[in-house]
């Protein structure tokens, strides 16, 4: 499980990720409490709109940032973006109006939209071995769960001694520590290849999604993932503080329960994925979240029931999210991987752009029980769509032919291009379309 940490470069990046996520997790708790101060029982609406801005920034910025950053030094780019995020977090304690929250969070989310895909795309370059990369994905999932477990727990403890506004200082510190560890990380030097035109770099990742069946299924499952996650992230503070009349500390513990379930699933996933396909694990996770949302509409009547529901939701969430990196890696070569990760970042967050406002607006206009049901329908839709569009038979090596191959094409190993041959298949310049079963 922890063997990737023997690699010094990955160890530094992983530490940077942990530091940034610990800070981000405290900011998530503080932002929810700030929204409750600004809007009371309608906090879900304020928080939902703030998170919708996050999704708009992620969708619009990530592909452009990936295309523009292709010629930039990766380390300098990541450090600069961490510094921007630290400055924004430091300004959040001074806001007093909802529009100020929206403005600052826009800057923060734009920086994150550029940072995250570039960061994720480096991991396969550091760990080319499939087994090590799978373990690294689970470790990254565990690190992300710190945002849902350790950060809320730490926030709950700190809230006993200080105002929630002071939690934003912890966010700034997290980003500063992240920048320091990125500076000290030894990153791999990529093989220099001829740069594609900007438009091809911008749209290349989306093209891979359009032409690769498993990637289309991945986006469908992202709809289910967003529906379950949005209910937790938007309405936890509403359920705990408005329905149950409990404190901000109780809301933090509820988020920690969700993260605990996610962490438990992430620990089990490396062994599970040795026995089941990525598709199977992700569909299981989506089905679990659908059932939790349906049950939550009638069962989320006490704080204890909510803790149990959120822990199970965390299991389903991790099952849908963690294997995604494996599917992305199988579907791209090293040169196209940054564009593919940026496209996945943008396309998956398009689902969150739907789910976040639904979670906030339905809860504010009706009640959280109605939000449970509406999001359950959205989650079920993503689950069924993923089952349909992601083929159950999805091998890495695919037999195919080339209509007009170059005679000296090295990947043919001396065979005639018109002959049926097989190898790990990804869409690229030599393979512009997905082979049919007839090939």
TrEMBL record:
Residues 1-394 form the Major facilitator superfamily (MFS) profile domain. GO terms for cellular component: plasma membrane. Residues 398-412 have a biased composition (Basic and acidic residues). The chain crosses the membrane at residues 12-34, 46-69, 101-121, 167-191, 217-238, 250-269, 281-301, 340-359, 371-392. Keywords: Cell membrane, Membrane, Transmembrane, Transmembrane helix. It holds the Pfam family MFS_1. One of its GO terms (molecular function) is transmembrane transporter activity. The keyword Hydrolase does not apply. InterPro entries: MFS, MFS_dom, MFS_trans_sf. Residues 398-418 are annotated as: Disordered. It is found in: Cell membrane. It is a multi-pass membrane protein. This is MFS family permease. It comes from Brevundimonas mediterranea.
């Amino acid at each position: 499980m922890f063997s990737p940490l023997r690699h010094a470069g990955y160890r530094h990046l992983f530490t940077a990720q942990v530091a940034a996520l610990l800070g981000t997790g405290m900011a998530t708790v503080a932002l929810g409490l700030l929204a409750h101060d600004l809007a009371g029982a309608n906090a879900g609406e304020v928080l939902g709109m703030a998170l919708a801005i996050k999704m708009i920034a992620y969708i619009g910025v990530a592909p452009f940032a990936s295309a523009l950053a292709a010629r930039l030094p990766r380390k300098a780019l990541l450090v600069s973006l961490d510094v921007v995020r630290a400055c924004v977090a430091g300004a959040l304690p001074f806001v007093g109006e909802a529009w100020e929250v929206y403005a600052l969070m826009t800057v923060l989310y734009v920086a994150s939209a550029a940072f995250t895909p570039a960061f994720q795309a480096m991991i396969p370059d550091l760990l080319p071995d499939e087994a090590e990369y799978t373990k690294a994905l689970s470790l990254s999932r565990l690190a992300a769960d710190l945002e849902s477990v350790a950060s809320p727990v730490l926030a709950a403890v700190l809230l006993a001694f200080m105002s929630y506004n002071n939690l934003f200082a912890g966010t700034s510190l997290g980003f500063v520590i992240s920048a320091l560890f990125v500076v000290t990380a030894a990153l791999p030097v990529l093989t220099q290849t001829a740069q594609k035109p900007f438009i091809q770099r911008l749209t290349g990742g989306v093209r891979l999604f359009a032409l690769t069946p498993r990637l289309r299924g991945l986006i469908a499952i992202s709809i289910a993932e967003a529906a379950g996650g949005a209910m937790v992230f938007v309405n936890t503070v509403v359920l705990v503080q408005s329905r149950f009349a409990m404190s901000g500390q109780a809301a933090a513990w509820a988020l920690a329960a969700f993260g605990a379930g996610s962490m438990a699933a992430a620990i089990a996933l490396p062994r599970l994925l040795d026995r089941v396909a990525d598709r199977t694990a992700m569909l299981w996770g989506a089905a679990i979240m659908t059932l939790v949302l349906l049950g939550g509409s009638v069962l989320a009547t006490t704080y204890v029931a909510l803790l149990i529901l959120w822990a199970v939701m965390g299991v389903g969430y991790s099952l849908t999210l963690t294997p995604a990196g494996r599917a992305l890696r199988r579907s791209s070569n090293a040169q196209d991987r940054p564009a593919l990760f940026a496209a996945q970042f943008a396309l998956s967050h398009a689902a969150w752009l739907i789910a976040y406002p639904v979670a906030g607006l339905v809860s504010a206009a009706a009640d959280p029980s109605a939000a449970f049901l509406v999001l359950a329908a959205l989650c079920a839709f993503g689950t069924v769509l993923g089952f349909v569009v992601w083929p159950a038979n999805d091998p890495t090596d695919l037999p195919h032919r080339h209509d007009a191959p170059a005679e000296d094409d090295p990947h043919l190993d001396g065979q005639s291009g018109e002959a049926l041959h097989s190898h790990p298949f990804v869409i690229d310049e030599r393979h512009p379309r997905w082979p049919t079963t007839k090939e």
